[in-house]
């Protein structure tokens, strides 16, 4: 049976290297009946996704620089302008090269440039890839995200570059309470797991196993 | 081919998430030391590379939209212009694979025209990601790229399955000597690099440039390496998805079955067995 509390937290992302227009249409038709929070696509499919999901009650978002965060600030800002203009949320992988070097200022400047382009018009979801960070680094990154001006963090890319652990979510929740909205991604495959993560403090769930996660299938 | 010539066609690549400035610096220093053709980096690394490679012949290649090509042509062109303004000598872009698979050759042509225009006189490379394409699609995208006059076709991002030697031969057949052919993807040793070069590759994209050059010999001695079940188990545990065999190597039947069951691809002399 579908768990409506989990269902409304789900974010699906038909994003891959090879997805065709036909496949995207099929995917959106398939998920249309469910009350998911949003659908994430790559920028090439933004117009189509917005058109197909108009009036569906679901938000649309795009990913930048995915999954490595290797774009320059200028390209990220250009994509932000496009997204804001069209009304799409943005998932922004942080400058991990700077973060892994302890250069939080560079990572903050990058994120601030994006947030100042948004003017609060769409959600800015900061993506730090917690699977490759220590808890100390996660705390520094989350402080930085809040200071830069957004309050949504997506834990991982969910592309096999490491999973989100309950400990990650518990740690962020304990430290930031309700100041940060936590979107989890990476390794969430069934309803039981989803409930555990929500109990630990997760607000939203990115998953490709949405049928299992909402309880539609075992 | 001499060691120095091999070094001169290597694109020394660092496209990983968990790298710090020091790792980027190390890659640049290795490129200078071995005289590699280029370093391949994310656009945000360009300013650091410009400083480090100032007095060298090593080129800076920006990996745009990597590893996915599903962006609009405008953004691809924007990113190329931005990368060049920051100091990139070469730009590498992933073609719109979804459009290609749907036979929207017009989309592919338009984006490559804009990309060629954006890169102007710099080197323009196009990644076609052979593992997702039929031979017909591979030929088509190479013909389009040749018609537009990009400089180099690259087989793969190395994010998915590696190219086979048939892929390299097919691309070479279509583009001839008018375009360069870059082979990338799991080219981790000198033998693998040699197979790709013999098939027609004029550049090798790899993070193992140092190992390739140091391991390079004119004639590789025949090594009768036996791949057993234990090796497959170990590979599976370490997350290895592809295993490469060379002339003289032996794969035991049990190891072969286990690899098949574990979804590990086996390549023999550059040809995919399964």
Features:
heterodimer, A: 218 residues, alpha/beta, eight-stranded parallel barrel, 10 helices, 8 strands, B: 274 residues, eight-stranded parallel beta barrel
Topology:
The complex is a heterodimer of chains A (218) and B (274).
Chain A: H1 4-7, E1 10-12, H2 21-31, E2 38-41, H3 46-53, E3 59-63, H4 73-86, E4 89-93, H5 96-100, H6 104-118, E5 124-127, H7 135-148, E6 152-154, H8 166-176, E7 181-184, H9 191-200, E8 204-206, H10 210-214
Parallel strand pairs in A: 1-2, 1-8, 2-3, 3-4, 4-5, 5-6, 6-7, 7-8
Chain B: H1 3-7, E1 10-13, H2 21-34, E2 38-41, H3 46-52, E3 59-64, H4 73-86, E4 90-94, H5 97-101, H6 105-119, E5 123-127, H7 135-148, E6 152-154, H8 165-175, E7 180-184, H9 190-199, E8 203-206, H10 209-214, E9 226-227, H11 229-237, E10 242-245, E11 250-251, H12 253-262, E12 265-268, E13 271-272
Parallel strand pairs in B: 1-2, 1-8, 2-3, 3-4, 4-5, 5-6, 6-7, 7-8, 9-11, 10-12
Antiparallel strand pairs in B: 12-13
Report what the structure shows.
The complex is a heterodimer of chains A (218) and B (274). Chain A is an alpha/beta fold and 218 residues long. Chain A has helices at residues 4-7, 21-31, 46-53, 73-86, 96-100, 104-118, 135-148, 166-176, 191-200, 210-214; strands spanning 10-12, 38-41, 59-63, 89-93, 124-127, 152-154, 181-184, 204-206. Chain A has a single domain (4-214), classed as Aldolase class I (TIM Barrel), CATH 3.20.20. Chain A is built from ten helices and eight strands. In chain A, strands 1-2-3-4-5-6-7-8 form an eight-stranded parallel β-barrel, surrounded by six helices. The N and C termini of chain A lie close together (10 Å). Chain B has two domains: 3-214, Aldolase class I (TIM Barrel), CATH 3.20.20; 226-272, no CATH class. An eight-stranded parallel beta barrel of chain B has the order 1-2-3-4-5-6-7-8, surrounded by six helices. A three-stranded mixed β-sheet of chain B has the order 10-12-13, with helices on one face. Helices cover 44% and strands 18% of the residues of chain B. Chain B is globular and about 55 Å long. The chains are: A alpha/beta (218), B alpha/beta (274). The interface between A and B is large, with 37 and 42 residues.
